[in-house]
């Protein structure tokens, strides 16, 4: 009996080896899985993601004589949809971009041949206060579903005029031409 068991074991061993060899697979490809898990309480409304804010055309004479005097401008909003206040109760908005060379709290103009002596100031319409570049706003309380945050942007003088001894302007601190600035915003959940 033991002699016959050895024959069957030897026979099974060869067959099992052939079956195991038939089941060997080669790696012919790969699948990459990507995604993200966030604790964001809302989604950014598609109309707020990429937008253009027209500040309009102003004259040099529309600016007051002091650095910080503003002219022109327009309002804009950032809207959040599908908000849930289960995990996060508050939100702040932070704007970033190229800082002005004179005042780092202002958004500087970018590109070649930009107007000299001018930057862009962003203001929080809720408080009327300036939102300094790279600094979050004060917190907004989130409401369920939709939230809209209102801001304004305006031209700001960053250079004074050159005057002669009689006090007459001999050279304007502000140039003329096209204005272009680019800002990004981050929504900070708290």
TrEMBL record:
Pfam families in UniProt: Fimbrial
Keyword Magnesium: no
Lineage: superkingdom: Bacteria
Domain (Fimbrial-type adhesion) ranges: 31-172
Keywords in alphabetical order: Signal
Extent of the signal sequence: 1-26
Name of the protein described by the UniProt record: Type 1 fimbrial protein
